[in-house]
Amino acid sequence: MLSSRLVTPHCMLCDAEGMLNMAICHGCFNDLPWNLESCPCCASPLPTHLPNNNCCGKCQKRPPAFDRSLAPLRYEGEVALLISAFKFKGKLEYGCLLTQILADHLADNIEEWPQLILPVPLHKHRLRERGYNQSLEVARLLGKRFGIPIEYQQLQRHRNTAHQSDLNYAARRKNIRNAFTLTKPLNATSVALIDDVVTTGETVAEISRLLKKGGAQRIEVWALARTP
Ligand SMILES: [Zn+2]
Ligand SMILES: [Zn+2]
Description:
Elements lengths: L25 H6 L25 H5 L6 E3 L2 E2 L2 H12 L3 H18 L6 E4 L4 H7 L3 H13 L8 E3 L11 H8 L3 E3 L7 E9 L3 H12 L4 E9 L2
Parallel strand pairs: 1-7, 2-7, 3-6, 6-7
Antiparallel strand pairs: 4-5
Helix pairs in contact: 3-4, 4-6
């Protein structure tokens, strides 16, 4: 399990002295691929800020079932390396650092906090393989920091879907459709859905459709990073 410890850590990228209670130094922090200009709806990186806080063309054409997405970083360079080691090599300390960055971003941007945090579930076979669900690790830290309950058994992934990034749009939708179920009635109207990386947005869109059918009125997607 991830834990936030009060130590003076060293930078995970260059071993210089870290910033206050963070395992990254000022230089590496500033050099991270920040997702500054992004779609307010799907967090997709944009070349420039669109006027009037408009959503990207894709979201305008086909509004997703979630209401807003926040992802402070772009999934590239050092961030892609850190996330992949967090996900596949058990480097939970990398997840801890990236979650601190996400949490600070949320603290700066959220006006109204959700009632419940739901991590995107892994299929039980993949969970057994990996030993942990990276999205649940992120959710736990966020829940603790902001005092929001987490429900990690609310959603179940009952199909072990192929990797979304390997598929085209039509295949992605088909691949993810009906991959999730609600295991019990939803006890909240305002929900934050946690994923480590939002790649195509299809996974969180599919879960959001399910949650809205189950009574959710507002859904925010919080992710460590967004694929450009
Ligand atoms: Zn550094
Ligand atoms: Zn968008």
